[in-house]
Amino acid sequence: PLLTPSQSLDGAGGRRSGYITIGYRGSYTIGREAQADAKFRRVARITVCGKTALAKEVFGETLNESRDPDRPPERYTARYYLKFNFLEQAFDRLSEAGFRMAACSSTGTCAFGPEQGGPADDKIWTSYTEYVFCRD
């Protein structure tokens, strides 16, 4: 039988090809004159963007679908997130499923400093980082 593009299988074990994007927001504090002891906060939430079927295949029960519970398998979503907070764990799962990193991007901005009511000598920075993984 013919398969639709969203159902197409590659030759390596019958796995779907596609992309999954992992994103997270972070923050850190750098003291006066960019001291070497910057304080990083843990990752609060790892977001997942991609086709529902691929995300479920890779992350299984660790995928939190509560923000988009009835999404069809062939549709894309950017509303999922992971139930764990360790990027390395997400990367390991993607690698084990045959994905490779294709691109990454990060932005950062100063959110609070003394002039905005922040700590006297510190500046609090926020960042957003995305990693794009693909499987051919």
TrEMBL record:
Biological process according to GO:
regulation of G protein-coupled receptor signaling pathway
Q: Name one Pfam family in it.
A: H1_KCTD8_12_16
Residue span, KCTD8/12/16 H1 domain: 18-135
Q: Which UniProt keywords apply?
A: Cell membrane, Cell projection, Membrane, Phosphoprotein
Q: Has keyword Cell membrane?
A: yes
GO CC aspect terms:
neuron projection; postsynaptic membrane; presynaptic membrane; receptor complex
Compartments where found: Cell membrane; Cell projection, Neuron projection
The protein here is known as: KCD12 protein
Q: Which organism is it from?
A: Struthidea cinerea
Q: Which gene encodes it?
A: Kctd12_0
